[in-house]
Every structure is written in C-alpha cells, then in structure tokens.
DNA sequence: CATGAATGAGCGTTCATTCAT
DNA sequence: AATGAATGAACGCTCATTCAT
C-alpha cells in the first residue's frame, strides 16, 4: 500500500516558504535552498513538486488573489443589497482595513510580484488576470452607483489608490499614517461617486 | 597637464545604462556587464566609477527624483500664486499627465526601485527620503486648501494613487484606460479637498 | 500461495525502456525516471529489479547481441553447407540488410553502447565479449574460404565496415545511400576473399 | 594600455581540455570544472570564452576535422598526380596508418562525438558537415579510378570501414590486430576498385 | 582613466538512489 | 512486488567584483 499522497500539503508548504523568503529578500534572492529551508524540506523536493521556481511564484499569485477575493466576498456579503455605496466601501476595506496592516509579508509579496510582472511574461499574465478580476468586481459595484459609462475609470482610480497604499506601506512604511489608508480611500471614493452622480443627474 | 575629468559624464552614462537594463530585466538580473554594454563602456570601468552595483541604483533613485521635482516645479510655477487647488492639480499632472505614459522605462524603473526598497535598507532610505520630500511638497500645497490638520492624510492618499497608477501601468498595462490617470486622480483630489473644506468650514 | 514472479517480464520492460530512452537521449541523459515511464513502471521499481542503472545497460548489451546472433544464425542456416562464401555474405546481410535500416533505435543504442564502452570498464568488458563472439563466428566462416592464417585480419576488417555503417547511419543518416550498405560490404568481402584466395593458391 | 587579448590561446586550452577529459569520461561526464582543471584555468573562465559547453564540443569537432584534413592533404600530395589508386590509399593511410594507433584520445574523442551526434542536432550538423567533406574528397579520388557512377557507394563503404576501425580500436582495443587496419582497408579498396573497374570496362 | 580577462561563490535544476509505506 | 516521495551531491551557468596591463 503506497503512502498516501501529500503532494498538496507539500506544495502549500513550499508556496508559503516562497512568500516568507520573498517578502524578506525579493524573488530573485529567494534561493530554492532557502525556500526549502523555510518550508522545512530538502532542496531537491522543491523541484519534485514544482517544475521550476517560477511555477511556485505563479501559484503564490493565485493564492494571494484567492485570499483577497475571500476577504472581499465576506465583507461585501454583509452589506445590505440595496446599499451600493456601502459595497464599494466594503470592497476597499477588504483590501486596506486589514490587508495592508495585518499581513505585511503578503503585502510585501504582492508588491514584489507587481515588480516581477514587469519582466516575466507568465507572471504578468497571472498578475493581469488577477487584477482584471478584482477590477471587474469593483467596476460592477461602482456601476451600481454611477452607471456603467463612468465606472471603469473610477474603479481603476480607486484600485490604483489601493495598490499605491500597498507600495508605500511596504517600501516606505514610516510615511503612511497608521490606519489612514482605508479611511482616505473611502473618502476618495465618496468624492468620485458624488461628482459622477451629480454629472449623471445633470 | 592632466586630462579633464569625465567622471561625471561616465557616471551619467552608467546610471542611464542601469535604468535601461533594469526596466527590461529588473535590478538583480541587470548584470554589470549589461549595464556597461548599455552605457557603451567596458565592464571594468563601472567599478572604477562606482564602488558597487547598489551605488548605481542609489544614484538612479536620486536622479529620477530630481527629474520629477523639476517637472513638478515647472508646472506649479505656472499656476497663479493664489490658486491653491490649481497647484495641487499641477503637482498631480506633473506625475501623471506625462510621466506614466511618456517614459515607460522610468516608470518601470521606479516600480522596480519600490520593490528593491523592501529589502535593501540603503535603497529604502533613499526611496523614503525621496517620497518624503515629494509628500512634504504636496502636503504644503494641500494645506493651503484644507489646513494643516488634514493635509497629511489627504496628500498621502493622493500620492498613493499616483504610485498605484505607476504600478498598474508598468505591471498590467492593458488595464489602465489610456490618459485616464491624471483626470481621475484630479477628480479624487477635488472630492477630498471639497469634503475637507466643508468639514473645516463646519 | 505466493503470486507468480514476474521479475523477468519486468526486467524486460525496463531494458526495453532504457533502449527507447537511450536511443533518443543517450545513456547519461536517460534518467531512471524516464526509463521507468517508458517501461510503464514506477521509478522505485527499477531499483528493485536492478541494482543500478549500469546493470540495465549491461543486460541491454547482452540482449542486443542475442538478437543479432539469432538473425545471423537464421540466415546462415539457410545457406548450403558447402557454400562458404555464401555464409560470409549471410553473416554480413544479417547485420546490414535489415539491421541498420529496419531498427534505427537498436542501431542508435548500439552506437551509444560503443561510446560508453570507452569509459565504463564493465560496459567495455560486455561489449568486447559480444564483439569477440561475433568476430569468432565470422572468422570461422572466413577461414573456410581463405584459411586460418588470414581469417583474423579479414574478418576484423569486414566487421569494422559493419560497425562503421552503424555509426554513419545513426550519426550522419543523410550520407549513407539507402540500401547500399549490405551490397558494398559484400563487395568488399568478395574482393578480400578473392585476393586472399589467390595469394593462398600461389 | 590593455593587456593583449589571449582569447584564442585560452579557447585552444579549453578545447584541448575537453578532448582530454572527454576521451576518458565521455562528453556528459566531462564537467566544466574538470575541463577547466585540465586546461589549467578557473571554472568561470570557461564560460567567459565559450557561451556554453556545447560550443566547446563544436569547436573540437572542427579542430579534429582540420587535423585530419591536413594529414590527408599531406599524404595525398606526395602521390604522383596520375596515380589515382595511390591517392585513395594515401587517403586511407592518413586516417588509419597513424590516426587510430597514434592518437588514442583523438580517436576516442571522435567516437564520442559520433555518439553525441545522434542526439544533439547542432553536433549532428557539424559532424555531418565534416563527414560530408571527407566523403566528397574520397569520392573524387575514387571517381578517378572507377568513374563517377560507382564512386559514391564505394567511398561510403571505405569510409565506413575507417570509422568502424575507430570504434573498434577505441571501444574494444584488444580485438584489433595491431597495425592491421590500414592494410586491410587498402585491400578492401583494391578489391572494390578492381571489381568496379572490371564492370566499367564490360 | 580604461580594458577585458580572471575569479570563485552561488544559482536553478537534474538525478541516481533510498526508503517508508 | 510496488509506489512515489524524499535525499543530497553534482551539474552547467551567471555574476559582482578584482586586477594586471
């Protein structure tokens, strides 16, 4: 009787090992040996479970995205169905109220992934797909407030603000007043939605 | 008669070589040999003019910052002294109206630098110093509109939006509607400033 | 009641797996995992049935030799007992009329084995033993025509030509006119045997 | 004043280092570290002068071929212009009278290259090109004796015999009677040329 | 100032072999 | 018999850095 497969568990360990090492040393400097050590495994095993280092990164992208989607879904679900603005705020809170402050290594990892997306086409594809999905979600929520025509640009703006807070909190942590991110971005959202609604009404 | 020093010219070439290579391959993968080739120089000369690879990066950070400061100064100077809101918009335009679209390699380089700032303390210090200076400038402009008390958080929010647009346009270029960045961020600014002014007035 | 042993069948599968992989990738690059996959077995099983990779190769050498011996025996048996020259030609046909053209992977495998024989003493021993047996067979046939004294050198020459055709057809396949090998080597044999017979008669 | 380039000298050392190590351990087992050691150089320098290990092999193929061409040219040049058969024999002597016996590592290297040609397309191309050039030379000499029509098949046969002697002397050295190779192949040549001439005359 | 050869540590990856099940 | 996860050494290759000229 063969030993029961523990492949998924091992892949998990390795992906989390990459996140840990990468958030401290970046992707290039996260050597496979260190990833293995962080995962408590032998170096050879990493390549038994992943065809190459990039594959680990791609799985990590997907996992971080899934975590975020869950957080968003949970928060948005709590909002009353007719409260369209509340859902937009819930979306933003999901990213900023806990994300940026609560899990610095995930934020650092995400910023690192953004930079890797610039030069690794496969990473870029994965990154774009994740961002596109998030954006479409947000765009839908925004459209309920201001209509479809203006939703795209507004949601990109709000999402950019979120990403920008990630970058600043990871790369220049001393400069972001603690706890201000969610509040400020929601204010931006309110301003954008008001303006757009007013125009729409005109 | 000693030949006139060309040190500064050489350093310039090398720094621009790094920017070029780095925007295509990232910092770690930008080998000194490639930097030298991009600069039209021999590899050995790079270490004659810089003590190590990181020093080139630090100079690049400062140069990109200086370029941005000049663009900002030029635009803000054109605004009527009493038009406080106009100056905020000029600041944002300086970063987004030309920056993100017009010089993709500088944007890619800046995003790469943000990620390197996460793990290289010296890079982080340089990055923070640059961001702090920009933020203080923006904060001053914002304070003229809404007062000192609220200026800090608002300016960080606007600056985050700018950084976020940089990241999105470098890492997921298909997703940012072309030309929308400056307009949207200025809308955000208007909303924030209106809200804050109203509160202040209250 | 113990299940009947399938050891021999498994060893067969593995040896043929090695031949398949080796003819495409060479011996060193034929990984045990690939051999197992080609054999339809699990990697661990390979080392259950063989102590190491080299042992598979040694068995393969013996099997390819056995195949060749059978082909030779079959063809030679068809020749009239008194037709000594006919037997020499039958021997050569056994190697070249079908071998080189009909089973490219066996030819590639044999050429690969020749090269491995240069550095692995155990492989060299196995290879030498096989070649010696073939040579002794051929030498016997040649001796019936020209006498024992000259048979050794002549049979080595003919055998060398056979091996040379193997190499050329495996390594530079475009250069050997299709179907010419058996004919040309038999012409060589005829020339050698004529000359030697004439000298012998003198 | 820069140091004068010694690139060609270094490349020579490295190529000869590969030949030495490869003739003892095969191509795959000839590690870059060992090649460097055999060449008296540091490991990193190998990749400074060659883009990869295969490039060293390709240069070696060309060098071994050049050596052989020179030996052939020297011997053939000594033969009287009208002595067509003598030139064929000189060609064969160039490969077998000294080659096989005198430089075992070159022979072992060549046999190794033949085997590598089976799986590395670039090696195959280089190998085929070398063999084609040699064959065309021999074919021209043979054609002077028997006419163009029969020359191709005969020259391939003789060349195969030469290659076969290389293989046997490298891989099963005990089985080739010392000094017999050149003599036997020349006998084969004589037989082939006689037969073909007779037919041609018919 | 400038060259480009040289160094050696470290990287991602492969792999024969072992072993718990 | 059989599985496939696990190991760790070795490989080809890259690279920041040094240095003789």
Detailed description of the structure:
The structure is a homotetramer of 202-residue chains. With 202 residues, the first copy, chain A, is mainly α. The first copy, chain A, has two domains: 1-50, Orthogonal Bundle (Arc Repressor Mutant, subunit A), CATH 1.10.10.60; 54-201, Tetracycline Repressor, domain 2 (Orthogonal Bundle). The first copy, chain A, is built from nine helices and no strands. The N and C termini of chain A lie far apart (74 Å). The model of chain A has no long low-confidence stretch (mean pLDDT 93). Chains in contact: A-B, C-D. Chains A and B meet through helix 1, helix 6, helix 7, helix 8 and helix 9 of A and helix 1, helix 6, helix 7, helix 8 and helix 9 of B. Chain A binds a DNA duplex (21 and 21 nucleotides) through residues 1-7, 10, 28, 31-33, 41-49, 52-53. Chains A, B, C, D: Residues 8-68 form the HTH tetR-type domain. Chains A, B, C, D: This is TetR family transcriptional regulator. Chains A, B, C, D: GO terms for molecular function: DNA-binding transcription factor activity; transcription cis-regulatory region binding.
């Amino acid at each position: 009787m063969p030993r029961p497969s523990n492949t998924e568990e091992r892949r998990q360990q390795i992906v989390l090992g990459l996140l840990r090492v990468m958030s401290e040393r970046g992707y290039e400097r996260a050597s496979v040996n260190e990833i293995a050590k962080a995962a408590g495994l032998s170096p050879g095993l990493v390549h038994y479970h992943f065809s190459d280092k990039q594959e680990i990164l791609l799985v990590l992208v997907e996992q971080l995205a899934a975590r975020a989607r869950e957080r968003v879904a949970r928060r948005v679900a709590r909002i009353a169905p007719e409260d369209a603005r509340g859902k937009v705020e819930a979306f933003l809170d999901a990213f900023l109220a806990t994300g940026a402050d609560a899990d610095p290594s995930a934020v650092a990892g995400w910023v690192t992934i953004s930079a890797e997306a610039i030069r690794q086409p496969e990473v870029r594809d994965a990154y774009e797909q994740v961002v596109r999905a998030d954006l479409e979600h947000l765009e839908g929520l925004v459209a309920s407030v201001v209509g479809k025509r203006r939703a795209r640009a507004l949601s990109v703006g709000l999402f950019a603000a979120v990403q920008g807070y990630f970058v600043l909190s990871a790369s220049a942590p001393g400069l972001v007043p603690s706890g201000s991110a969610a509040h400020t971005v929601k204010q931006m959202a309110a301003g954008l939605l008001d303006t757009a609604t007013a125009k729409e009404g005109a």
